[in-house]
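Notebook B, p. 112. Complex prediction, attempt 2.
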Amino acid sequence: MIKILNKQSCSGCAACANICPVDAIQMFPDREGFLYPSVNADFCIECNECVRVCPFIIPRDPVPPIATFIAEHKDAIIVQQSSSGGVAYQLACHAFQNSGWFFGAAFDVSWKLMHDGISSLADLEKYRRSKYIQSEIGFSFRKVKELVNEGQFIVFIGTPCQIAGLASFLGNKRNTVVLVEVICHGVASPLIFTRYLAALSDKYKSIVEGVNFRDKEKAAVAMGITFKKGEKYLRAANNDLFFRAFGRGLSLRKSCGDCLANNFRSSADLEIGDFWGAKRKFKEFDENKGASLVIVRSKKGKAVWDSISSAFRINVADLEYACENNPNIKDSTMLSKERGQFFLEIDQTRDILRVLRKYTKRNYFMALYSYIVRKLFR
Ligand SMILES: Cc1cc2nc3c(=O)[nH]c(=O)nc-3n(C[C@H](O)[C@H](O)[C@H](O)COP(=O)(O)OP(=O)(O)OC[C@H]3O[C@@H](n4cnc5c(N)ncnc54)[C@H](O)[C@@H]3O)c2cc1C
Ligand code: SF4
Ligand code: SF4
Ligand code: SF4
């Protein structure tokens, strides 16, 4: 049975909890707010299925990609409303056009991020855009399997570890499932996120009504939070405390420091992300407005991409160039050396904004460095 001896070696994908035939595994949050499996030994029948499906015990083999594209949706409103170039939106439409299901991550009423499936475009809005915290898989893998057994068509979007977990969970029963991974920098703690929202809610003396991690009014990556009384918090990522902790590897899950599902190892059919460096290579694309990187990873992925690509302006791209500008395709983010102390202080304080500020202070040299980088590359 699964034993978590080292937190770095569990991504929280919940494949083990989904596969257990006697429901002996439950996912519980630790003090940092990340879910880990816990086995009730009284129920366990020692079938070892949980070990067999774990992508961090038995990592999946890398499969070389087939093709790489830069893409931007032809509908400028869809690009504006999406994190990158709107590929996820079109994939969802493709699922619905085939009378199928779309699985993604959406906030519930208490700002908990949950993975689930929908079968209608009318329900899509809250499943759109990136939320840079870990989503709870719950029993959505089981739901996918039930739908597969009914012969339904499914598009499932998730982080590489979620996709690897689902691929292992489904085994060879995935003919009607399109697995789509987002390129992954790592996932921040959901606990830090909800406490950060609560602190801003206190500051603005109003209830949070909407969160957009990719509010394009201000910058390519900016935090936009709307409040019930009508005010709006809008900060570019380098000026927002949540994003600064995320970017520096302070608030990420431990497994993200040594990811075993990136670098083409998840068995995804398609991989999507931002095409950073787009403007320098392709005059007609601008990553600040939203340009997608699409990596076709399987024949099934190619068939799906071929059937939706007419909705986009596209160009063939060089995979090596894309990887140079987007290190998380192949490599893990380095976790901050201060991560442990940071979480300890977060646990002990009521003033989360003070701790976030303390650990993400910009010093003079960092400011100078980012100024030079901006001047050189913009
Ligand atoms: C945690 C995280 C880290 C990322 N890191 C990078 C990176 O380092 N480099 C890069 O190029 N791109 C990264 N991305 C991907 C990027 O932000 C966009 O999601 C991607 O380019 C798709 O954009 P889109 O316009 O096609 O669709 P969007 O409209 O942005 O749709 C995003 C899709 O992802 C799903 N999703 C949202 N949040 C989560 C989550 N927390 N877990 C699982 N699924 C989720 C949504 O349901 C939706 O279907 C990351 C995404 C996430 C969620
Ligand atoms: S060994 Fe089998 S029964 Fe025991 S926890 Fe794992 S999956 Fe469940
Ligand atoms: S990585 Fe996934 S399958 Fe493995 S122990 Fe963690 S939650 Fe379970
Ligand atoms: S970096 Fe790896 S382990 Fe962390 S969420 Fe992304 S895919 Fe999962």
